[in-house]
Amino acid sequence: MSSNRVSAPIVRTYREFGARQSPLGRMRGLVRKAAVAGLSAKASFKGQSWVRFPCYHHVFADERKGFERQLQYMRTIGEFIPMDDAIEMITGGSPIDGRYFSVTFDDGFRNCLEHMMPITAELGVPVIIYLPTDYIGRDASTPSDAERMLRFYPEDPKLVEFLNWDECRSMLGHGVSFGSHTVNHAHLIELGADAITDELKRSKEAIEEKLGIACRHFACPWGKPVVDFDPAVAPGIARALGYSSFAASNRGAMRAGGDVFMLTRDHMVADWENFQLRYFLSR
Ligand SMILES: [Zn+2]
Q: Which of 1, 176, 185, 230 has the fewest beta carbons under 10 Å from its own?
């Protein structure tokens, strides 16, 4: 009937996306949540000055409410600024005079257009989306593309739609900017310097050519220092290629004079409660 031979359904909700959690995993999650609830009561932002980079991956249809609530909550803690301003604030040589958030999204999923942007544009929250350029424009109804998309999560294959270049371009006027997340969503720790250079260079060129913007920012796939990239190698390559920042995925705040080629980011999921955000964002 259909020429689409790939049987996996397109994931459209967070429920479908995260359906695999075991009962034990769920139990651990609940215990952790209870511990965080206790600790968050003591958390305070008083006297803190920093820039933080919330790191999201998706806003599925069933995450919109939670995502909006989280942005509203963060707004009570600090001010939202674009990535260029955040980097300038950290490197500019002046003390940081308050608390700032610069929201980041990895992977370039289409749900950023469908469910993220209506909320961020409405609230005036700037966002940078890091694109793995070879996935951009792949179409789940084309079997070879669908097979490639399924392998985006090698350990747990599932089909999540990506943005295409026209969609990315259409987002530019709505507070959205774009950075690189390699060409192939590459695991940089497994690559030599030449291959890393290739991933960072070709993705930057593709974004600049397709979108007509400067691609100044890079986020490392998975992003854990030592585990997913060599801190002595990859950030230096990014710098040499003309990037202005290199984002990792270890948690924490950035302060004036911090190393923007080792940006810490706070991983977040839209269904977390405000007390969970309060705990992670105050550490
Ligand atoms: Zn990624």
A: 1
